[in-house]
């Protein structure tokens, strides 16, 4: 008889536990509580409108486009938005700097061009062999 009472007690406790768990799922806080969109707050978008005709003519086969631009110009305009107005300070700095020599790149490598001697360190850096630096060595002057 004692064994039957223990079984009935365990069954009652199990049933109470299951019912309590099910009842807890009906609450407003917990795992099932989440934000849901308000279906009545959705508004309709205006229909698409066909833009006015800007006198565009479809291209004719075999004829080159009349307004075709260089791809590099198109890329620069897309990136930077075309020429920008210069500020007063920038205009003043450009006036003070003066005009640059148009052939500057040709005359820089000329042997007659005067340059500033940067010293032995710069010459060593320029003359350094190419590589990933694994074989590099450092020496300090004594």
Q: How are the secondary structure elements laid out?
A:
Layout: H1 2-24, H2 71-80, H3 88-97, H4 104-108, H5 120-127
Q: How far is it from the N-terminal to the C-terminal residue, by CA? A: 103 Å
Q: What share of the residues lie within helices?
A: 25-40%
Topology pattern, helix = H, strand = E: HHHHH
The portion of residues forming beta strands comes to: under 5%
Taking the sheet with the most strands, its summary is: none
The class by helix and strand makeup works out as: mainly alpha
Structure in a nutshell:
This protein is an all-alpha fold and 142 residues long.
Your description of this structure?
By secondary structure, the protein is mainly alpha-helical. It is flat, with a radius of gyration of 41 Å. It has five helices and no strands. 39% of the residues lie in helices and 0% in strands. The protein has helices at 2-24, 71-80, 88-97, 104-108, 120-127. The model has no long low-confidence stretch (mean pLDDT 78).
Provide the descriptors you would attach to this structure in a database record.
single chain, mainly alpha, 5 helices
């Amino acid at each position: 008889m004692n064994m039957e009472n223990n079984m009935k007690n365990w069954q009652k406790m199990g049933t109470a536990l299951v019912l309590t768990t099910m009842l807890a799922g009906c609450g407003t806080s917990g795992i099932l509580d989440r934000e849901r969109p308000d279906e009545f707050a959705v508004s309709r978008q205006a229909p698409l409108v066909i833009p006015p005709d800007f006198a565009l003519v479809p291209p004719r086969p075999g004829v080159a486009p009349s307004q075709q631009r260089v791809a590099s110009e198109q890329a620069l305009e897309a990136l930077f938005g075309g020429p920008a107005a210069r500020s007063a300070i920038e205009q003043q700095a450009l006036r003070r700097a003066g005009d640059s020599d148009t052939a500057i790149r040709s005359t820089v490598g000329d042997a007659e061009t005067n340059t500033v001697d940067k010293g032995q360190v710069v010459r060593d850096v320029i003359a350094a062999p190419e590589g990933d630096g694994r074989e590099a060595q450092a020496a300090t002057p004594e």
